[in-house]
Amino acid sequence: MSQTRPASEERVGPRGARQEAAGWNGAVATSFRMSMLASGTTSVTHTPRTRLLTEERRREIADVVGRQGRITITDIRRLFGVSAVTARSDLDALSTSGSVVRSHGGGIRPLTSGPDYPLKERESIRHDEKVRIARAAVQLIQPSQTVILCTGSTSAELASQMRRGNLERVTVITYALNVALQFADTPDVSLVMIGGILRHVSNAFVGPQAEQMMGSLHADHLFLSTVGIDLEAGLTTLDILEAQLNSRMTRAAREVTVIADSSKFGHRSLSVSATLIQVHRVITDEDAPRDMVNALRARNIEVTLV
Asked: Disulfide: which of 25, 120, 196, 273 matches 210 by Cβ 3.0-4.6 Å?
């Protein structure tokens, strides 16, 4: 008995035409998926018609991690319409290739040293956000307190706001030249300058001498700037010696407040300067990822969005 071929198969034609149609459909699906990612939508479930080949799917997972810093198994299931088992398999494969680092429930961007931009260049990046962060931070400082200020453009902005705020009888401990210079002609501020080896790119003193001096001091507040904030690694920076000095500072301060704009969230750099257990609060801008903000608050870390 003759069997009628489905109309859809008749329309497809030869093998080459079927492959061309499949490739076109895949391109449309990929374009649609990337547009949803760009709009912040992650609840798209794929039908069998738009499923990708394994390698294509893994490339897109790696792209998401590269842009956003992390992805969860739930995200992968919703984005690509696959099972949790397949999502874990994809992450394991990407971890083996070095594209992601496996974490509990998902994957994160691999550790990277990143570019260490000169301080003058960093001052112009996300300047408005840094001003708002600094204005919020200066409200925490009370008369007669001792504060530690780190190097970095956000710390420099905080020093500027402190000068404008006419704070009374405040002592500032810093290892950053640009911060110290702002208080050089401020009579109501007692300045303690940490010495050591000058790190030119950040205009800051680091090294064993700086760590030894810091070990003999105490402060009410440490305002800690950072290169990256990661839920697992904690706070990281590009320079090992600076990270070691920052670690000493966290032990010297009664309270640790991280001042960092939202671009630092989800990033990990070379060396850990502090764990999240040591952090009391984070001041950042309103673009900070909500999932990370909620995770920090769940750990009893106060988060202020400005």
From this structure: 196
- Kindly report the pTM of this predicted structure: 0.65
The verdict on 174 and 209 lying in the same domain is yes
Q: Count of residues for the chain?
A: 306
Closest CA to 99 of 109, 112, 85, 90: 109
Domain that holds residue 183: 119-305
Can you read off the two tokens belonging to residue 40? 């912040």
Do 52 and 80 touch, CB atoms closer than 8 A?
Answer: yes
User: Hunting for tokens 């509990």 — which residue is that?
Assistant: 104
CATH code for position 236: 3.40.50.1360
Distance from C-alpha of 42 to C-alpha of 77, rounded to nearest angstrom: 10
Q: Hey, what are 266's tokens?
A: 């989800």
Co-location of 104 and 173 in the same domain: no
Q: Element (H or E) spanning 208, and its range? A: helix 208-214
Q: Give 10-residue mean pLDDT values along the chain (306 residues).
A: 45 44 44 50 44 85 86 93 94 84 78 55 77 97 97 93 91 96 92 94 91 96 95 92 95 98 90 96 96 97 98
Residue 259: strand, helix, or coil: strand
The residues near 97 (Cβ < 8 Å, ≥ 6 apart) are none
Contact between 203 and 176 (Cβ < 8 Å): yes
CA dist., res. 163 & res. 135, Å (int): 11
**Residue 56, C-beta contacts closer than 8 angstroms, at least 6 positions apart:** 26, 30
- Domains contained in the chain, number: 2
DSSP track, 41-66: -------GGGPPPHHHHHHHHHHHHH
Q: Give the integer Cα–Cα distance in Å for 265 and 287.
A: 10
- Location of structure tokens 């989800």: 266
Do 202 and 301 fall into the same domain? Answer: yes
Cα separation, 283 vs 294, in Å, equals: 14
Which of 108, 143, 174 finishes a domain?
Answer: 108
